[in-house]
């Protein structure tokens, strides 16, 4: 990277982390993995990440809320979003808090979101069991649970849904 503060070709874990965070939020685990892949020492990475958290430059809570919001806008369901957050190293308490905050803001009406996703993808409920099963698989693959899938199949194309 040109113009690096160290003056040489080598980057520090902090400069690399700042460069990554300037583009988008990352979970602590994601940053640690990326810094390790760049060949930085595990102890230096841990110190760097602790410093970034202390300074408010990295926050798993902020990452979780932004990630959840972006996935809601993509029409993904809660099961898939939770799994994706867990894969990024977030603990269940942080995930639960993000979902609670989304609900408090009026985001995350999973039944309505399932209806919207289904109606956008398919013109109607399907005339055959095979077509209906295809719609069920679509929603299940998006991360909606059984009750949300059933609701969407019943209400997605009605005028009052």
From TrEMBL:
<dbReference type="InterPro" id="IPR053924">
    <property type="entry name" value="RecX_HTH_2nd"/>
</dbReference>
<feature type="domain" description="RecX second three-helical">
    <location>
        <begin position="59"/>
        <end position="98"/>
    </location>
</feature>
<keyword id="KW-0963">Cytoplasm</keyword>
<dbReference type="Pfam" id="PF21981">
    <property type="entry name" value="RecX_HTH3"/>
</dbReference>
<dbReference type="InterPro" id="IPR036388">
    <property type="entry name" value="WH-like_DNA-bd_sf"/>
</dbReference>
<dbReference type="GO" id="GO:0005737">
    <property type="term" value="C:cytoplasm"/>
</dbReference>
<protein>
    <recommendedName>
        <fullName>Regulatory protein RecX</fullName>
    </recommendedName>
</protein>
<feature type="domain" description="RecX third three-helical">
    <location>
        <begin position="109"/>
        <end position="153"/>
    </location>
</feature>
<dbReference type="InterPro" id="IPR053926">
    <property type="entry name" value="RecX_HTH_1st"/>
</dbReference>
<dbReference type="InterPro" id="IPR003783">
    <property type="entry name" value="Regulatory_RecX"/>
</dbReference>
<dbReference type="Pfam" id="PF21982">
    <property type="entry name" value="RecX_HTH1"/>
</dbReference>
<dbReference type="Pfam" id="PF02631">
    <property type="entry name" value="RecX_HTH2"/>
</dbReference>
<comment type="similarity">
    <text>Belongs to the RecX family.</text>
</comment>
<feature type="domain" description="RecX first three-helical">
    <location>
        <begin position="15"/>
        <end position="51"/>
    </location>
</feature>
<dbReference type="GO" id="GO:0006282">
    <property type="term" value="P:regulation of DNA repair"/>
</dbReference>
<dbReference type="InterPro" id="IPR053925">
    <property type="entry name" value="RecX_HTH_3rd"/>
</dbReference>
<comment type="function">
    <text>Modulates RecA activity.</text>
</comment>
């Amino acid at each position: 990277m040109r113009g690096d503060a160290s003056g040489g070709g080598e980057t520090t874990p902090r400069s690399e982390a700042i460069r990554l965070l300037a583009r988008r939020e990352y979970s602590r685990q994601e940053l640690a993995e990326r810094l390790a892949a760049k060949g930085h020492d595990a102890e230096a990475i841990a110190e760097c990440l602790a410093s970034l958290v202390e300074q408010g430059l990295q926050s798993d809570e902020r990452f979780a809320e932004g990630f959840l919001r972006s996935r809601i806008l993509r029409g993904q369901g809660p099961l898939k979003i939770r799994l994706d957050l867990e894969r990024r190293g977030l603990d269940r308490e942080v995930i639960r808090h993000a979902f609670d905050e989304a609900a408090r803001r009026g985001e995350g009406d999973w039944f309505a979101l399932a209806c919207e996703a289904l109606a956008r993808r398919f013109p109607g409920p399907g005339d055959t069991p095979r077509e209906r099963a295809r719609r069920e698989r679509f929603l299940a693959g998006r991360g909606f649970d059984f009750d949300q899938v059933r609701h969407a199949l019943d209400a997605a194309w009605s005028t009052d849904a």
